[in-house]
Amino acid sequence: TQLAEMDNQARLKFATLFLLTYLVLLGLSLQFGQHYIELGLPIYRWEIAWLAPDYHIVSLAIADNHHESVIALNLDLIRYIVVAGHALPPTSGISSSTLAGHALQHPLMMLSLLAAWPASNNFQRVNLFLIAVPLLLLVEMLDVPFVLLGSIEDLLIANIAPDTFSVWVAWMNFMNGGGRLALSIVGAFTVVSFARWLTLS
What we know:
Distance between the termini: 18 Å
Helix content: 55-70%
Order of helices and strands: HEEEEEHHHH
Strand order of the largest sheet: 1-2-5
Radius of gyration: 20 Å
Shape: elongated
């Protein structure tokens, strides 16, 4: 790969640009991070409604939880569902949350990697960031809504069949156990690969 072919000086330049960009974006996220997350909430709401039609979304918003900013989801179960072989009746007041900062990790990592990536000219650099927009959206959609629903599934299973395997819970655990960083890195390299394919095609 292009990264593996770099000499020591190029690697040092890459690491320096990555660190500087990351620090700048981190500062911007502290100032404007909430606005970025709020832009994604309607998309998260649509996705959750599509993925979990048995639930009614009461609220999805940024909230304060013991002085930590979280994305909080509140649902009502509107019809009977079967979880781990158990029938659950309609109920209200089902909630889950994830740290709001999780939604900011993807742009921090992806955009920092792309800013540091060696490009032959500014046009290539602009192309990278344009291609990154839909990929970043996809990465975000694979994180927050899935983790929120996984947290709810984990709560339901824990009460009735704690040893039951759930794809939702497995994905939540993967994301919280380092998968979030991996997903961002894969997203950045996918952008680079797609940009190179467009250049060669």
